[in-house]
Specification:
The complex is a heterotrimer of chains A (416), B (982) and C (95). Chain A is 28% helix and 26% strand. In chain A, strands 1, 2, 8, 9, 10, 11, 17 and 18 form an 8-stranded mixed β-sheet that branches. An 8-stranded mixed β-sheet of chain A has the order 5-6-4-13-14-15-12-16. The longest helix of chain A is centred in the first third of the chain and has 18 residues. The longest helix of chain B has 19 residues. With 982 residues, chain B is α+β, with helices and mostly antiparallel strands. Chain C has a 4-stranded antiparallel β-sheet with strand order 3-4-5-6. With 95 residues, chain C is an alpha+beta fold. In chain C, β1 and β2 form a beta hairpin. The longest helix of chain C is centred in the middle third of the chain and has 10 residues. Classes of the chains: A alpha/beta (416), B alpha+beta (982), C alpha+beta (95). Chains A and B meet through α1, α3, α4, α6 and β12 of A and β6, α3, α9, α10 and β31 of B.
Chain lengths: 416, 982, 95
């Protein structure tokens, strides 16, 4: 079914009785060309691009819960390509370009809103680092503007400029950054993949991997065995658990990142703003809620919830930056489990087991990567070669000393 | 204005009248009123506009679950959007405004949305607004954003203060209703340390709203007597206006106490206090929340929850209408009718969806069993409704009861899932409760008063048992068992009109239908697709109803359909309260250097360096630009002598028999060979071979070393060294202590440094080059016997020393040094001049040691000893860190010497396009060198060490500052190091 | 969270700094022939269990002890707290 304003008017006039499900609820078949483990944003995007770009449609996406129940439904919806290192920047810029045409591509309004992202700096070294980053962005075809304090004040006059412990000295502004209605991304990809013949199978948990003589031939699931020529794991947050079924240890720890939303308010925050002297970032949703967050809690966990010290730390950052939000109320907080990798960067790679592929390690940056992750993973699955923007996102990079460490924190996942 | 709807009785202070304004109109109320009860007392029904359709809305509930009656409270900077009128206590001078409408409330121009409702069903926005592409951001989204949102912030800094506090208890009792009070009495009498917290300003819970008795006396009297007893117990703390908003790990609860929200002004008090309560046991006695029934046009002002109507009549002596009808599916709803009659209010009808015998008589009311309400009439207030049997009934208030939902919220905060109880038609807490949590009373599905009282008592005893305390010998309070019989009934399917489920977000049964058709049938999909339960009330009155109606659609049971869990906070918490005092200048503590006072007197400009404030430069009269000051400080230092407070460097005392061996392992270069009385530069790697930190370490005596770290890494290096000491080599005899704050330390640099110091140190100190050469260190005495330490080390490249004295002498030491230096024209210098001189000298610092660079990158690859196993040495051998194209730290000069260099520029070969493929490195630090008379820079470039003299392009598209630069040695000044050894 | 410090009793976890898996105690010998592979596994690979996890916490706002805490990563329940020095010694680490 093609969605359009006309269709809405027609349905509205006839009692909204003619809508059909956005996706089927098929029974799993016993054999697929590709089985994607994980029906989150990345898994669904992978299925969509496998079908659409590579014509590979004998594909199943297996989801343990309901589709989109992972981090695609639990994030703070930010898109940006303000990365610095050659191993990352072209990939995230590809992602941003895909975002820019996504809604027309999959005929679903994901409310992609490029109202800009502003990273504030509060010291000279921080400004120098942003200059390094901004120039790297421009060199790979992204957009970036370095603002001074007055430039920041024009964008966001209600921030604390006069009384701040760490005065705002400027910021790196990416106008093409912004926010997206996160759930709609999962739904749009699911609908597009389903239309092209992909089986999306919900409530189907992978409980084992079929591996014989170093070759992966399928998966055991809560709904029976499913054979596959290729098994593509894509379960960021649970990578450790799922890959342990294949006997693999990963350069990944699972951590919780909390996110927060306030009650609905009339527009007050222009785009996305990140504080450079504390753990706080914020945007405002189309519905009016302030959507904000900060640092991960910092301890290994698979529980989708966090604790108070982080909640308070985030709000302290918020009040330090924007004392005008003090009387806005925190409405809801939640936690998402992150694949925190050893250098803060992800993996899209084959494994040593033939037929078994891995996509994960997205840290808290997976949402913005969704289109490119799907695009590049589909490329890898279809061609068995890494996409040109993801050549460094390899599992063996720590063995050979080729880390992609944007923050320079080293092999301690909770610092990235 | 007269309070037309005020009745006799109630818990209000009729002796006093307070005035409040609603939409600029003044009204009277009494202390004890909420804004909602006061509005109802004055006959105000229409108080707001709904989120999407902008339908007129009235007060729906009498508690925190309120979806409709949200107002902007107060004016100016204190304006507080989305405040629920049902929990806001009236005070004299209160100003409230309705929100989310264009034009006056009575003529909301956005009401046109209501006419378009057929086209605005669930998820409509996902299906349109896509063409033309540019229109989303330019047209559609701005319109949506402007019309979305509810109330407004003032845009001004929050004028109030907020405090934080910590409390400890054996038993935290959450909710001072009948169950909570019964539990508190028993636990308190038994001697346990009890906190009894309630969000209301009057404890009692539903007893305040009901006409029921306990132990033979009126419920409210029992509450007063019980509270009086509890307040006499030293081991019991009663906290009213205190919401337990979240249950966190290991028995930690978040609580928000409202201190001044009920006052016109905070008067110097904190507005609210955020408590963290540490408990061994917690008893959740949070009661239950009533739910509605979905029927046609069930959202009109005057349609309210039946229990709320009872609360207004009994507690606040206010009737929400002159002629009230009841629509119920349970026996509890009938008590609204009987209580109204008892208060002398006309009850026009009682409609019960159950085709059974009426449980009681209601004087003067039409009673219709087995019927439902299908539609209502009256845009700004209901006046008539029609029934499934065709009957039409007049009423200006319709009290609805669809049954009660236990307040299981806190049981879900650690992802526990409630379970469906078919007989009581409600979700009750599941088995996976937060550690130490017990549940009693209505929150546990024990819905009658008698059950609640005995459950509270019994659960307190359970808690005591869990704590190993013995229970006092007293009895549970007693009450009659009122009937709570219910037959689940959710949705009047005969209604042709929209039937609301979520009032605030305007989710109707039609949306559930579209959601179902579109395939969004899982509970979480339903929520996210329709926004059901996502409003400020978090679905307190709507979640279960929506779930049940989806179950009906799917032909499944509620159990099969699932449940949704609640996340913290229970009710919204101001961001200001969560931040507490940490805002503005108090966001983080300020660390002052020992000579801060002296520097302040000199008029120094300070800069934030982490939490430190350091002197950045010392402007002199006549200097109008910072560069003038900094250039002067550099020149004077290099020509004569300068003094700089470097106390912020981390200092770690390392002692023990194996201290040398320990340093040998934590530093990449060798330390075991360092002689007593000598200092060595130390390079510290992370285990992955990347540079962690650098600094100098002095061997003061055989088993005593003093290490310095960079300012930024003082804490993390110490932590790392403790890890090495305790976890990796627990057998080494070595002890560590951080001495950063114990020693004030000053760099004294320049050709006259020795002469200056000679005047400060005690006479017997020989500072000659022979007696105290470069890299020497010693314990000394200064200024006539004050103990100190002297290190001959240099960051500036000059003849230089660092002199340390106990911190308390720091300020005087600075003054003494400057006084002694007067004859040499000594200059104090700040961090800027420090930075210029270290760039001139080619020392790597924070901008170079960014956690991505190895020893090889900074030109110190050879320092990493291969003869020993030190942290990071093995991993630094990895192939990717030792490629031919590896980055080297080198110096840069602009080809056009007038051109200022910019840190953050990227290098490409001359003539190459500035693309990522051609990227060869970046400029890390730049400075204007007053010594050379032009801009200089340090930076990393591929194979830099082999490219001396090559001209490359420093691309800075970001600031339009690109220029050609020459690769040079990073040692711009005195490359042979003659000065520092002089 | 609350960590029951073996010397100081129950303390709020906010007083501590977290490092990671307690296997970080088992630093390989850097001078052996297999050191490269050993260090790769030691430094980069994790069991990352969903369940009991032995992990290192540092009492930075306290007595500077490194602790090995056994905590369930699904429920956050802590079942054992030991001094890391004792654990390291018990595992044979010495000088």
């Amino acid at each position: 079914m093609r969605y359009s304003a006309l269709k809405i008017i027609k349905e509205g006039l006839t009692g909204n009785k003619g809508w059909t499900p956005a996706w089927r609820e098929p029974e799993p078949r016993s054999q697929y060309d590709v089985v994607i483990v994980g029906g989150g944003g990345h898994g669904l995007a992978t299925a969509y691009y496998l079908a659409k770009v590579h014509g590979v449609t004998n594909v199943a996406v297996l989801e343990k819960g309901w589709l989109g129940s992972g981090n695609i439904g639990r994030n703070t919806t930010i898109i940006r390509s303000n990365y610095m290192l050659p191993g990352n920047q072209p990939f995230y810029e590809l992602s941003l370009k895909l975002w820019e045409g996504l809604e027309q591509d999959f005929n679903y309004n994901a409310m992609i809103s490029q109202r800009g992202i502003l990273n504030l700096c509060h010291s000279d070294p921080q400004r120098d680092a942003y200059a390094r980053r901004g120039n790297a962005m421009l060199m790979s075809g992204a957009d970036a503007v370095l603002l001074d304090a007055d430039g920041v004040r024009k964008l966001c006059p209600e921030m604390d400029f006069d009384n701040a412990r760490f005065p705002i000295k400027g910021g790196l502004w990416q106008k093409r950054g912004g926010t997206v209605r996160h759930d709609a991304v999962a739904w749009g990809y699911a609908r597009g993949a389903d239309e092209r013949g992909v089986d999306i199978i919900q409530n189907c948990e992978v409980t084992g991997m079929q591996i014989n003589n170093g070759v992966c031939t399928g998966v055991e699931t809560s709904r029976g065995r499913i054979n596959a020529k290729k098994v593509a794991v894509c379960v960021a947050g649970s990578s450790g658990r799922v890959m342990s079924l294949a006997g693999m240890r990963l350069p990944i720890e699972s951590h919780v990142l909390q996110a927060f939303v306030s009650e609905g308010l009339k527009p007050t925050i222009p785009g996305v703003v990140t504080f450079g002297a504390g753990h706080f970032y914020i945007s405002q949703s189309d519905k009016g809620g302030l959507v904000f967050g900060g640092d991960i809690d910092g301890y290994n966990t698979y529980a989708q919830r966090g604790n108070l010290p982080t909640v308070e730390d985030v709000c302290e950052g918020g009040m330090a930056l924007m004392p005008n939000i003090g009387r806005a109320r925190l409405l809801r907080s939640w936690g998402g489990v992150m694949d925190m990798s050893m250098d803060g960067s992800p993996f899209i790679d084959k494994t040593d087991t033939k037929g078994l592929y891995f996509n994960g390690g997205w840290c808290y940056g997976g949402f913005k990567a969704t289109p490119a992750s799907g695009w590049c993973y589909a490329h890898l699955l279809a061609t068995d070669t890494p996409h040109e923007t993801a050549t460094q996102m390899r599992l063996d990079r720590f063995q050979n000393g080729r880390m992609i460490d944007e923050k320079g924190m080293g092999a301690q996942p909770n610092l990235h | 204005m007269t309070q037309t709807n005020r009745l006799e009785g109630g818990q209000i202070n009729r002796q006093k009248i307070v005035q409040f304004a609603f939409n600029d109109q003044m009204y009277n109320a009494h202390p004890g009123d909420t804004l909602a009860s006061a509005l109802l007392a004055n006959g105000i029904k229409h108080v707001g506009s709904s989120f999407k359709y902008h339908r007129p809305r009235g007060i729906f509930s009498a508690g925190p679950e309120e979806p409709n009656a949200l107002v902007e409270l107060r004016r100016g900077a204190a304006q507080e959007p989305n405040t629920r009128a049902t929990v806001a206590e009236v005070f004299d001078g209160m100003m409230a405004r309705s929100q989310n409408h264009k034009g006056p409330l009575g003529f909301d121009l956005m009401g046109v949305n209501d006419l378009l409702s057929p086209f605005l069903s669930a998820g409509f926005y996902y299906k349109t607004f896509m063409w033309p592409k540019a229109f989303w951001e330019k047209l559609y989204e701005p319109i949506i954003r402007a019309s979305a949102g509810l109330g407004s912030l003032s845009g001004l800094p929050d004028p109030d203060t907020y405090d934080k506090g910590f409390l400890h208890a054996d038993i935290l009792i959450i909710g001072a209703g009948p169950a909570g009070i019964a539990a508190a009495l028993q636990a308190g009498r038994s001697g346990a340390r009890v906190i009894l917290a309630d969000e209301d300003f009057t404890p009692g819970g539903r007893l305040n709203a009901e006409n029921l008795s306990v132990d033979g006396s009126q419920g409210t009297d029992w509450v007063k007597a019980s509270l009086a007893e509890l307040s006499q117990l030293d081991n019991v703390r009663i906290m009213t206006r205190t919401t337990i908003y979240g249950a966190y790990d290991h028995g930690i609860y978040g609580a928000l106490e409202r201190k001044t929200d009920h006052l016109a002004k905070s008067e110097g008090m904190p507005r609210q206090v955020l408590w963290r309560i540490y408990t061994k046991q917690a008893i959740l006695c949070a009661g239950a929340t009533e739910r509605s029934i979905a029927f046609g046009n069930n959202d009109r002002p005057g349609i309210m929850l039946a229990g709320a109507v009872r609360a207004y009549v009994n507690r606040w002596a206010v009737t929400p209408g002159k002629r009230i009808a009841v629509f119920t599916n349970n026996d509890d709803g009938w008590r609204t009718a009987t209580d109204l009659v008892a208060k002398g209010v006309e009850v026009s009808a009682v409609i019960d969806s159950r085709a059974t015998k009426a449980p009681t008589d209601v004087a003067g009311a039409i009673v219709v069993m087995g019927a439902t309400v299908t539609n209502t009439f009256g845009r700004k207030g209901i006046h008539t409704f029609s029934l499934s049997n065709g009957q039409s009934i007049k009423a200006d208030c319709l009290a609805v009861s669809g049954g009660w939902n236990p307040n299981v919220h806190l049981t879900c905060h650690q992802r526990g899932r409630p379970v469906w109880n078919e007989t009581q038609a409600c979700f009750v807490p599941g088995g996976d409760l937060p550690m130490g949590m017990l549940v009693a009373g209505a929150a546990n599905g024990e819905l009658s008063l008698g059950q609640a009282l005995s459950a509270g008592y019994a659960t307190a005893n359970t808690a005591m048992q869990n704590l190993g305390l013995s229970a006092a010998a007293s009895n549970a309070p007693n009450a009659d068992e009122e009937s709570t019989k219910v037959t689940a009934f959710w949705h009047v399917k005969e209604s042709a009109k929209r039937c609301w489920i979520d009032l605030q977000n305007d989710v109707t049964t039609k949306d559930i239908n579209v959601s179902y058709q579109d395939g969004f049938r899982a509970v979480e999909h339903l929520k996210r697709y329709t926004t059901l339960g996502m409003a400020t009330d978090q679905g307190k009155t709507s979640n279960v109803l929506g779930l049940a109606i989806m179950a009906e659609h799917s032909g499944k049971t509620i159990e099969q359909t699932g449940t949704t869990i609640f996340r913290p906070p229970y009710t919204p918490v101001p961001i200001g309260a969560l931040a507490g005092r940490c805002r503005g200048e108090d966001f983080r503590p300020v660390r002052h250097t020992p000579s801060h006072g002296w520097a302040e007197q000199q008029g120094a400009v300070f800069v934030e360096t982490g939490n430190w404030l350091r002197a950045q430069w010392f402007p002199q009269p006549g200097e109008t630009h910072w560069r003038e000051s900094v250039d002067r400080e550099v020149i004077q230092t290099r020509e004569s002598v300068g003094v700089c407070d470097v106390s912020t460097l981390g200092k770690i005392d390392v002692q023990g028999k194996d201290a040398g061996e320990f340093l040998n392992r934590v530093y990449a270069n060798t330390f075991a060979t360092l002689a007593v009385g000598k200092v060595r530069y130390g390079l510290m790697l992370r285990e992955d071979g990347i540079v962690m930190d650098d600094g100098t370490t002095a061997r003061m005596s055989e088993n005593h070393y003093v290490m310095t770290t960079t300012t930024a890494n003082a804490v993390s290096v110490f932590r790392h060294m403790e890890f090495c000491r305790q976890c990796l080599w627990p057998g080494l005899d070595v002890q560590l202590i951080s001495a950063t704050e114990q020693w004030a330390q000053f760099a004294v640099a320049g050709p006259n440094a020795r002469k200056l110091l000679q005047k400060v140190v005690d006479a017997d100190t020989d500072l000659s080059n022979e007696a105290f050469p470069f890299m020497a260190c010693s314990e000394i005495k200064v200024c006539g016997g004050t103990p100190g330490r002297l290190f001959r080390i240099s960051f500036s490249g000059e003849l230089a020393y660092e002199i340390a004295v106990p911190t308390r002498y720091g300020n005087s030491m600075m003054a003494a040094l400057m006084e002694a230096g007067e004859e040499f024209n000594a200059v104090p210098y700040g961090t800027e001049a420090l930075g210029v001189m270290r760039i001139e000298k080619g020392h790597a610092a924070g901008n170079e040691l960014v956690g991505q660079t190895s020893a090889l990158n900074i030109g110190l690859g050879k320092m990493v000893s291969k003869k020993k196993d030190s942290i990071g040495s093995k991993m630094s051998e990895r192939e990717g860190m030792n490629t031919e194209n590896a980055l080297n730290l080198v110096g840069f000069k602009p080809v056009n010497r007038d051109k200022p260099l910019l840190a953050g520029a990227h290098f490409v070969s001359k003539g190459a396009e500035p693309t990522m493929e051609n990227d060869e490195g970046w400029m890390t630090s730049v400075a204007y060198s007053p010594s050379l008379g032009h801009s200089i820079g340090l930076g990393f470039i591929q194979r830099g060490a082999d490219r001396m003299g090559e001209v490359v392009h420093a691309s800075d598209q970001l600031r339009g500052g690109s220029c050609d630069v020459e690769i040079v040695s990073p040692h711009f000044i005195d490359p042979e190091g003659e000065r520092l050894r002089g | 969270m609350i960590i029951n410090h073996p010397l100081l009793g129950p303390r709020d976890a906010a007083e501590f700094v977290y490092l990671g898996d307690a296997s970080l105690i088992n630093r390989p010998d850097g001078l052996t022939a297999d050191a490269s592979g050993d260090f790769y596994e030691y430094l980069y690979l994790r069991d990352n269990p969903a369940g009991l996890h032995k992990e290192l916490w540092y009492h930075e706002q306290g007595d500077r002890s490194w602790l090995v805490v056994t905590r369930n990563t699904l429920t956050h329940e802590i079942t054992e707290v030991e001094l890391a020095r004792d654990v390291a010694k018990a595992q044979g680490r010495d000088k």
